[in-house]
Each structure stands twice: as structure tokens, then as C-alpha cells.
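Trying the structure run again after the queue cleared.
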Amino acid sequence: MRVVLPDRPGSLGAVATVMGTVGADILAVEIVEKYEGYAVDDFVLELPGGNAPDALVTACTSVPGVEVVWLSHYPEGWGLQADVDVLNAMTEDPDHAEEILTLEAPQVFRVTWAVLVDPVAGTVLTQTDLAPDLDGAGIAALGDLTGSRIRELPDGWLPGWGETLIAVAPFRDDASIVLARRGGPDFLKSELARLRHLAALAQ
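Done. C-alpha cells:
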């Protein structure tokens, strides 16, 4: 769950307290980004059976200044350790670091799918299970893959696919990694910076 909350002492504790009132068990908290006066935090939670997510949202928004911007289901075990784990895996097998980062991206960045693309040849080198099968036209629809960027693909960018948010980062060679989310949340600048940093280390 992604939450915007006031950046002042006690805000995080107040949110955690109301989460507890609906039986939510906080597994991890990640500060995604900070702005003047507020912070964006990701919570990895476990809800007991029978407790509706709506009750969780209502509880959180009862705290003054708090807004829930996104809520979704994720596999068990997703948390703050993901960056460390993927870095270790990349270090242990540097020849396949780009492929490792791509395949682990859904867990590390909480995205729907990821692809590793050779934009010059117009081919997909590696993709995760939920990624579309992209041909040359599909890759072209992703837009410029030569620089780090965030983009929203419109409904129908690929036949049968709806609006999709993507984040792109090139590696030092000809390959680029593309992360995609369907249904949000928006990619933040801090997430693109993380992606760019990890891509730079995958060499």
C-alpha cells in the first residue's frame, strides 16, 4: 500500500496504530520519497482473512493529512531486502547481471512485468512471465529506450493492452530495461533513480 503522510514526528506511528485496529500486520515499511512537508511510504502488509482492504483504507485516511494512493496484492516475502538480494545475485554472476535484474524487477520494484530489450536490433532479450510478447512494432511503441525516463503508454498501445506506466533505464551496452505497471501507482523520480543506479551496477 502506498501512502502519502505528513512529514512530521508521530505521523508514521499514527498510521501504524490505525492499521493495527483493523488487524493489519506490518511486514515492512519503505520510504519511497520525501518532499517538503510530506513523505511517500510503501507498506507491505498482511491482512487477516475476512478483513476487507476498504477497512484498511478508511482507517488510514482517518489520520489527518494521510492519503492512500494505491493498494494491491503482492506475493509473500516482498520487502526491503529485495535490493540487497538482487545486488548480491548480480555480483555473484556478473555475466548475467542484466538478465538477473530484469527477472527480479517485479519483486524489487513492485511492478507488473519487465523486459530487457536490444533497441537497436528491436528484439527482446529477457522477459518476465507477465510481460507481453513484443515484436519490433511493440518495442517501437515503448518509445525512446536510449535514456532514463518515465512514460505512460495509452490504451491500445499494444492490441488488447490498456494504459501502462513504464520506467526505462539503459545499460552501458546496447540493452535497456523496461519496467511496467498496470493500474498504478505512478513511478516516482526516486524509483527511476534506483533503477538507473542498479542498471549502472549491472556491468
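The longest helix spans residues 97-109. Worth checking whether this holds up in the mutant runs.
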